[in-house]
Amino acid sequence: MSEVRKFAEVKDQSGQTLIEFFGPGRSNDGLSVGLRMLTHQLLQVVPKSHRGIGFGGAYGYGVEFENEIFSMCPDAQDCTCAWDRRPPHKGKCKKQIDAWFRARKKIEEESKQKQKTDGSATEILGFWSFDLKAVTKWEKKNRYPKCICSARHWKHPEEHEPTCWLVRPRFLHKPSGFQVDWYKYIGRETKPNRQINGNDWCSMLEEILKSIKRPKLKTAIKAYQKAESAEQKACRETAKLAAAFWNIRAPG
């Protein structure tokens, strides 16, 4: 499970903390470290791939790659098959779906007005809050209409092609069927399809590294740790420069 990390804080001249900035962290368990190590090695095999930026770090997003032993792809959250290029809803199907959205919008607006009246409403960047529980309750009673025109429909992921990034596993070891999924980056909501022990995981990684003609596992881990350390140092220096510019104090 990924932890929550503090990335920066704003302090006044006396040193009192005014604002703290938090974001999703990333797990450093053996499974996540192994996948990031593999990403580090694949970036040297697939020259057109790019290192990641953001919460996941330089080696935390995975690389698009597949051979006879394994496959990996980033969690791009984008459709990469023809399903996403299908035409929009039409005819009676479009009418009933549009009617559903109008009815939902009405419930949302009514809840906004109710919160403004009782003083519980909040505004952020021009957007007013609404009663999510009321909208969710309405949605349970009024299910989203089923598509009857064969248009694109995000509610039916089974219509995607098996190779589409939206449905294929983020990591798959083909001989064993072991697969891992994550949300946006490795170490955040990382979910294997079954539990495996450390020895089996190391054996898989050894087999994978051999299939892409990379160094043995111990050497690859050391190379990844060295690269990760250098990357984190560079990030800390960048954070300090940004903090000085914006008068924000960065941890570390």
Essential attributes:
39% helix; 2 domains; 252 residues; two-stranded antiparallel sheet; five-stranded antiparallel β-sheet; flat; 5 helices; 9 strands; alpha+beta; single chain
What does this structure look like?
With 252 residues, the protein is an alpha+beta fold. It folds into 2 domains: 4-79 and 168-246, no CATH class; 87-151, no CATH class. Helices cover 39% and strands 13% of the residues. It is built from 5 helices and 9 strands. Helix 1 crosses helix 5 (217-246). The model has no long low-confidence stretch (mean pLDDT 81).
Care to give the gist of this entry?
It contains 5 helices and 9 strands. By secondary structure, the chain is an alpha+beta fold.
Q: How are the elements arranged and paired?
A:
Elements: E1 4-11, E2 17-24, H1 30-45, E3 65-66, E4 70-72, H2 91-118, E5 123-124, E6 127-128, H3 132-141, E7 171-173, E8 178-181, E9 191-192, H4 198-211, H5 217-246
Helix pairs in contact: 1-4, 1-5, 2-3
